[in-house]
Amino acid sequence: MVLRHAILAAALCACTAKEARVPRLALPGTDGAPHGVVDAHVTVLVFFSEHCPCVRAHDARLIALANEYASRGVTFFAIDSEVGATVASDGAEMRERGYPFPILVDHEARLARAVGAEYATYSVVLDEAGDVLYRGGFDSDHTHLSANARPYLRDALDDVVARRPVRRAQTEALGCALRTW
């Protein structure tokens, strides 16, 4: 089983972003409902770790981006794929951080493996078919934010919403290693 997940993850990572397709999974959310990760016109998945200072540093930028793109039909989810993640603890984190979207618990890291997420802040943009349009970092900052950060996720969303090819379909994620084992 683990070998099969490793092979799937390696195959997805070897593809260009548009060639990968995310499986239709329903994950429990901190809002008390299960959520399909491929049910919206455009979906953004941002991998989450409550202990990661990189995630915490980006909270305000993530909230602003989610609020800005909600009116454009973009759905945001934080994804917690770490061992020991629970809806209850993530619900407390969601409320404390003021996230306007739920955190989904990815038991056994099935979604993380499917999209090759190894680090917190790793972001994925999906279309309604589950095709990966973008994968990589939220932006070019790590834990210390700068005004001149390259806004990778924002650029990808601008392209997707404008129905243009994504200018940079894959970038590097700068965050803490996800504890999925």
Note the topology.
Elements: H1 2-14, E1 26-28, E2 34-36, E3 42-47, H2 53-70, E4 74-80, H3 87-97, E5 103-105, H4 110-115, E6 123-127, E7 132-136, H5 152-161
Parallel strand pairs: 3-4, 4-5
Antiparallel strand pairs: 1-2, 3-6, 6-7
Give a description of the structure.
With 181 residues, the chain is α/β, with parallel strands linked by helices. The chain has one domain: 3-Layer(aba) Sandwich (Glutaredoxin), CATH 3.40.30.10. The chain contains five helices and seven strands; from the N terminus they run H-E-E-E-H-E-H-E-H-E-E-H. The chain has helices at residues 2-14, 53-70, 87-97, 110-115, 152-161; strands spanning 26-28, 34-36, 42-47, 74-80, 103-105, 123-127, 132-136. It has a five-stranded mixed sheet with strand order 5-4-3-6-7. A two-stranded antiparallel sheet has the order 1-2. Mean pLDDT is 89; it is low at 1-18.
Number of strands: 7
Helix-strand makeup class: alpha/beta
State the helical fraction.
25-40%
User: What is the CATH class?
Assistant: Alpha Beta
**What sort of overall outline do the alpha carbons produce when their principal axes are compared?**
globular
Regions with little confidence, pLDDT below 50 for 5+ residues? 1-18
Number of helices: 5
Strand content: 15-25%
CATH level-3 fold name = Glutaredoxin
Placed side by side, the strands forming the largest sheet appear as 5-4-3-6-7
Q: What's the CATH H-level superfamily name? A: Glutaredoxin
Distance between the termini: 14 Å
- Average predicted local confidence, pLDDT: 89
Please trace the helix and strand order, writing H or E for each element. HEEEHEHEHEEH
Estimated radius of gyration: 15 Å
CATH architecture assignment name: 3-Layer(aba) Sandwich
Q: Largest sheet, described in full?
A: 5 strands, mixed
